[in-house]
Prior knowledge:
The structure holds two protein chains of two kinds.
Chain A: H1 2-29, H2 43-52, H3 59-72, H4 86-121, H5 126-140, H6 143-157, H7 175-201, H8 204-211, H9 216-228, H10 230-254, H11 259-269, H12 272-300
Chain B: E1 7-20, E2 23-36, E3 40-44, H1 51-58, E4 67-76, E5 79-80, H2 86-92, E6 97-100, H3 104-107, H4 114-125, H5 130-143, H6 149-152, H7 162-174, E7 180-184, H8 192-209, E8 212-217, H9 220-224, E9 229-234, E10 237-243, H10 244-249, H11 254-262, H12 301-305, E11 310-314, E12 317-320, H13 324-350
Parallel strand pairs in B: 3-8, 3-9, 6-7, 7-8
Antiparallel strand pairs in B: 1-2, 1-4, 4-5, 9-10, 10-12, 11-12
Helix pairs in contact in B: 4-5, 5-7, 7-8
Amino acid sequence: MFGFILRRLIVTIPMVIIVVSLTWGLIRLAPGNFYTGEKKIPPAIEKNLREKYGLDKPWYVQYGKMVWNIVRLDFGTSLKYEGQSVNSILARTLPVSATLGFLAYLLALFVGVTAGTIAALKQNSRLDYSSMALAMLGISLPNFVLGPILVLIFSLTLYWLPPTRWGGFPSLNLILPVITLSAVYMAYIARLTRSGMLEVLRADYIRTARAKGLSEKAVVLRHALRGGLMPVVSYTGPALAFLIAGTVVVERIFVYPGLGTYFLNACLNRDEPLIIGIVAFISISVLIFNLLVDIAYGFIDPRIRY
Amino acid sequence: MNGRNGNILEVRDLRTYFQTEDGTVKAVDGVDFELKRGETLGIVGESGSGKSVTNLSIIRLIPDPPGKIVSGEIIFDGQDILLLKTEEVRKIRGKRIAMIFQDPMTSLNPFMRISRQLMELTELHLGYTRDQAYEHAIKMLETVGIPDARSRVDSYPHEFSGGMRQRVMIAMALSCEPELLIADEPTTALDVTIQAQILELIKSLKQETGTSVILITHDLGVVAGMTDHIIVMYAGKVFEQARTRELFATPGNPYTKGLLRSVPDPTSEQGALYQIPGLPPDVAHLPPGCPFAERCERAEDICRREFPPFVALTPDHHSLCHFAEEVYSTSKREREARAGARSQEQVLDLE
């Protein structure tokens, strides 16, 4: 077990470096620069700027410096938000995005697992069909459509909830963004739970449990749920990655000062250290989450040993 | 003991149908039998003959939909199980009627410790505390011959071999000392050497506890040494019913004769194995006549036209066949011929 974790952690390092190198390459391939704007800059000033930020050095020196920064976990200073280090921006924005993402995933798990289990138990009933139709809608409806619709209904028509802005935790401001962000995951998890449960409910050991005289509740909760939720557990790793992609859009809609908003701004501003910093941070957390999921497998299914 | 005329179980005209896209599958269609307290009944038949569905019907475990018990009575210890409420059936399942299933590799919950799976039963039905249930689980594992039970009780199923898992299933089934044990092909998935051990175990536990047993199998060798009565099923119907010895000695149905001839006989001179020609019929589309007619050596026109009668050859011996009497008397002659040959052999040996 310990050896397995160590091996996986060591593999993380080259993976992060590959992801970051590709990102760096893509930024460099795109035309333009962070200082290019509408106004033409005199060549002397441009030369100064290039010297200041080390852009006059050969590419491998610049690349080496970037990699060294990542290894030290110090991503330098933002080019746009002057005087702010990338690390301090991360520290400030992460709690916002993490709160949003975590709550969205919890909600998705709760609603998804419940709906999926009920759909599986009442297979081919009206309840099953309607919840699966709703799930299909949830998967197909992009969050940049769902968000504004929710705002339109609950904020601008019914005046129940604030339309935008971060209000700390807990606050009413969280409700709409969390629902918007979790819709897709809810739908996915509901479908995964349904198919997982359907498979398990047909298993021989469920028949054994019924033959023991256990109540339907005990059969489902004690015997079936654990096996039926295995697909949901394996989805948790990739879900995190998508969740981050989702926050970029959702934070933009609800004007949240989170990682996603800053990431988008960094890309628009060509703020290279900030882009690299956020990409590195996200890839590290995705890899670590996948590792946690694999470790969790071992605890859930006794047949899996590392 | 109550219950009418010493019967622990009486099944009357049981019909269990499945609705499929292909039409109504009459998996069990008018099955009658009874089982006396302390006796063992063997149910024999090919795959798809309805033997498992019969027994799942007894404890109402037919998945509904698509399955449904359409009619009949299942009288267990004087009460009709089909009339009980679901909660009342649950109190019977696992406590008074227990089941052992065919495949021990998949019939135990892979995510749960053996101890937990055993304790569940006694906690539920006998109201044991955690500690009592734990000790009882160890005792049950010892009873079914699992060595070093105390240290193995907390294992997971995958840490046990197939034979050991079937022992665990038996331990589980017998935890609450059921009055009826239904063993659905308990040895089919096991090695031959393990098969004998498991059968021996069921036999000895049955003698100790006095439980009545229904043993379902497609292996005539298995039922021969274990059962008092045998039912032969085909296409959801009872084809022949008799005391075990009688059925083996003088079968009164062409299908039973075919089955008996299909058992490999190592002393036989001929190398080729006999097999009944053709395949079991599609129970969704049965012909009007005898369902076995297409494969039967004895079949005549009437067999394809009319459904055969259930003929009582002796008070204890019934056969579903237009020519039951004839087949029965042929069997009798053959037995006498065999007996004659044997005594002649003995005479020759003496000389």
